[in-house]
Design a protein that fits this description.
Bound molecules: thymidine-5'-diphosphate, magnesium ion
CATH superfamily of the largest domain: P-loop containing nucleotide triphosphate hydrolases
CATH class of the largest domain: Alpha Beta
CATH topology of the largest domain: Rossmann fold
Largest sheet: 9 strands, mixed
Radius of gyration: 26 Å
Structural class: alpha/beta
Strand order of the largest sheet: 8-7-9-10-6-11-12-13-14
CATH architecture of the largest domain: 3-Layer(aba) Sandwich
Length: 460
């Protein structure tokens, strides 16, 4: 018998309650709780999929060393940048979630990649948001002509599962998970229950048939993947597609990956004929002009080093308390660096406004950027250009000391490739590393911020 019950689910954090609250008791969001009707018998049958006969068949546990490992099969997506964030290609039977703001280019990216994959694999593109005609128009815009790519415009979960089972593709793309609806459950498409159950059903099918499934997910106002963390736990890989509204480049980032490194980064550029991959992103983010307040660092995103330009503007303040504004860098980081400069280099920065930005709309989180940030600030304060062809890498401690950062060799090699001739870095910890770095680029090791700027001033 089907019984229905009502639960209240927070659409922000996914917490369930038996009662309505104006404010979620778990995450504190206002007006986020929505009533959802659940048919319990159906839910139980979904959750309890393993038939009892099968349960008896399992071999039970076994020693870890006796488990034979089959090599992971990877399907190449047709784009090196996409393969990179996936950890080397799409793993057969894996579930991938791609999140991003509306209009950022998720559908475009997947349609392009699906067409490439359809050259040698069977691919099913399920479009739940747009009609087949709309997708075909985009496809024509991308300049594609012949392809064995299959398109299926549907929102009903059951029909979609049937089609996947019948067609049995190697790759199925669902655009988007929030538009799917399981008619056995209550709630509107996109609600937490719907998203969670639809994704779970797709996951079961994917794993049992070894089909790779790519889910598109929208990002909520707060920048979270809707159907919140529930989905992130369920899938093997979570990618986010980000970009500056005013710039044409788009960044694909790995947030979670069971088959590769996280924080990996791929760069694309949106053009008139779709997304083009940018294989040399450092060149995209560097400008050839030097000016006071500009410093270059090499940040490491996952395993990829990228040269990035930092810009600072220091002005005498006319406000009671000086302004500090950052773009692409956490503001606490700036406050801390300003305090260190003020204390250890004796510059009266508390009487100056400070604006700091990462060029190209990128975000830099790692502390390795500290020395570059400090250099940009001092360069703007002193109205002096930093020496051309110099990169600065290092984390600054509160005592003004420079701490070493990871993947130094990778960063220095990237700087060298881009034609930089000098690098100011923290003391390299092991001798081996310093002996290896004896290429055309001159590496200068310093132990604190004062020493670093003495060297910089000498180089100018
Ligand atoms: P779309 O892929 O539909 O985004 P999402 O699926 O993430 O919502 O978005 C595409 C945007 O990119 C849209 O605003 C139009 C633009 N665009 C181009 O600039 N060039 C192109 O070749 C295509 C197909 C789209
Ligand atoms: Mg779309």
């Amino acid at each position: 018998m089907t019984r229905t019950s009502t639960i209240y689910i927070c659409q922000t954090c996914g917490a369930e309650t038996r009662q309505y609250f104006g404010r979620c008791t778990s995450c504190g969001a206002w007006n986020s709780i929505v009533e959802e009707v659940i048919h319990t018998s159906k839910l139980r049958s979904i959750n309890n999929k393993v038939p009892s006969s099968k349960r008896l068949e399992t071999k039970g546990s076994q020693p870890i060393s006796s488990i034979t490992n089959e090599p992971i099969q990877r399907i190449f997506s047709g784009y090196k940048e996409l393969d990179r964030v996936l950890g080397g290609g799409l793993v057969a039977g894996s579930l991938v979630l791609i999140g991003g703001d509306p209009g950022i280019g998720k559908s475009t990216l997947l349609l392009q990649s699906a067409t490439e994959m359809a050259r040698y694999k069977s691919v099913l593109y399920i479009t739940a948001e747009e009609s087949s005609n709309q997708v075909q128009l985009r496809w024509n815009r991308l300049g594609k002509e012949e392809s064995s790519l299959h398109l299926f415009a549907e929102t009903d979960l059951e029909l979609i599962l049937n089609e996947i089972e019948n067609f049995n593709p190697a790759v199925a793309i669902i655009d988007s998970i929030q538009a799917l609806q399981d008619n056995n459950l209550g709630g509107t498409p996109g609600s937490v229950t719907q998203v969670r159950e639809c994704a779970a059903a797709l996951q079961r099918l994917a794993k049992s048939r070894n089909i790779s499934v790519i889910l598109v997910g929208h990002v909520t106002k707060e920048g979270m993947l809707a159907g919140p963390k529930v989905l992130e736990h369920l899938v093997d890989t979570v990618l986010t597609f980000e970009g500056d509204r005013f710039a044409s480049h788009r960044i694909l980032r790995t947030v979670k990956n069971r088959f590769g490194a996280t924080n990996e980064l791929g760069v694309f550029e949106m053009q008139g004929k779709g997304l083009i991959e940018v294989l040399n992103p450092s060149e995209l983010f560097l400008s050839s002009q030097n000016a006071p307040g500009v410093a270059t660092i090499v940040a490491c995103e996952g395993t990829r080093p990228i040269a990035i330009e930092l810009q600072a503007l220091i002005n005498q303040t006319s406000y009671p308390s000086p302004r500090r504004t950052t773009t692409g860098i956490e503001s606490n980081r700036l406050h801390q660096i300003l305090a260190v400069i003020e204390k250890h280099l004796n510059l009266p920065l508390s009487r100056f406004d400070c604006y700091l930005a990462v060029a190209g709309g990128l975000e830099v989180e790692e502390p390795a950027a500290d020395l570059g940030i400090a250099a940009a600030i001092i360069s703007s304060y002193k109205k002096l250009e930093l020496p051309k062809g110099t990169i600065l890498i290092g984390e600054i401690g509160l005592g003004g000391q420079l701490r070493s950062v990871g993947q130094m060799q990778l960063r220095i090699r990237e700087a060298e490739r881009l034609g930089f001739n000098s690098a100011i870095v923290p003391k390299l910890s092991n001798k081996e590393l310093s002996s290896k770095i004896d290429q055309p680029i001159k590496v200068r090791e310093v132990s604190n911020i004062k020493e670093a700027f003495e060297i910089v001033l000498k180089l100018i």
